[in-house]
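Margin note: ligand = adenosine-5'-triphosphate.
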Amino acid sequence: MADPLDSDPILEFSNVALGYGDYTVLRDIDLNVRRGQVVAMMGGSGSGKTTLLRGATGQIRPQRGTIRAFGKNVAEASGEGLRELRQRMGVLFQQGALFTDLNVFENVAFPLREHTRVSESQIMERVLGKLDAVGLRAAAHLNISEISGGMARRVALARAIVLEPELLLYDEPFAGLDPISLGITAQLIRKLTDTLGCASVLITHDVVESFAIADRVYMVGQGRLIASGTPKDLSESQDAYVRQFLRGEPDGPIAFHYPATPAFDKWLDQHTGRS
Ligand SMILES: Nc1ncnc2c1ncn2[C@@H]1O[C@H](COP(=O)(O)OP(=O)(O)OP(=O)(O)O)[C@@H](O)[C@H]1O
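Resulting structure:
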């Protein structure tokens, strides 16, 4: 197999700043994700992980720099171009919002019915194939109210991969899972990345599970990229932020207090009459 490092990046951030209005959440971000890789984006609460994901999908435009997906500038894509880019990405949100009025099979079939014109027999084959990949082939007929939270996560995963995306983006895939479901989900993400030959980006707090499957880890904090490398590189890092995060220590450079912003100062002025 070709070395994935020789291939063009599927997702690439070059000197990117991202934020909302005139508030910059993250600056100077350089990262890339290649075919076959599982990449974990880590950082404390509010450090900007979801903001990175929004940048990758084109939901927000960078304040500076360039974000490319499949070689195309995401910020310049609109209309049909953006739809096409998004079809090549499977996004799995934390609340995998399944349609409760559809059964498991129809939930997974939904993107195929919506975006393709494949025949019913092909839909049957593809949907059962994807449900099989997540271990839920025999749950196809169940209603959403009849499945557990962990199973719902896997149904959402089957739905995210049914169009065979080249890039899978997961927002907190391990949040709220019991230890067994957590391990299963992590191994599933690794296996699907390998068998589909896609790339997976995980936004996560979970050090143990993501380090077990990631090829590369990016850690954000204090408004920038704090560290990047293999899980081993990060485990051996002497950086105080990285060490505090990995060890879950309460004391260190990761601030407990949410930082004051110009928007907060303005709000406070308006509400206290402070000038
Ligand atoms: N739509 C928005 N408008 C303005 N500010 C926002 C918006 N969404 C997020 N932010 C701010 O951006 C910063 C980063 O938020 P983000 O959701 O990216 O963090 P996160 O690392 O994903 O956090 P968590 O792990 O707690 O989900 C926070 O300060 C947040 O208040």
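The first strand starts at residue 11 and ends at 20.
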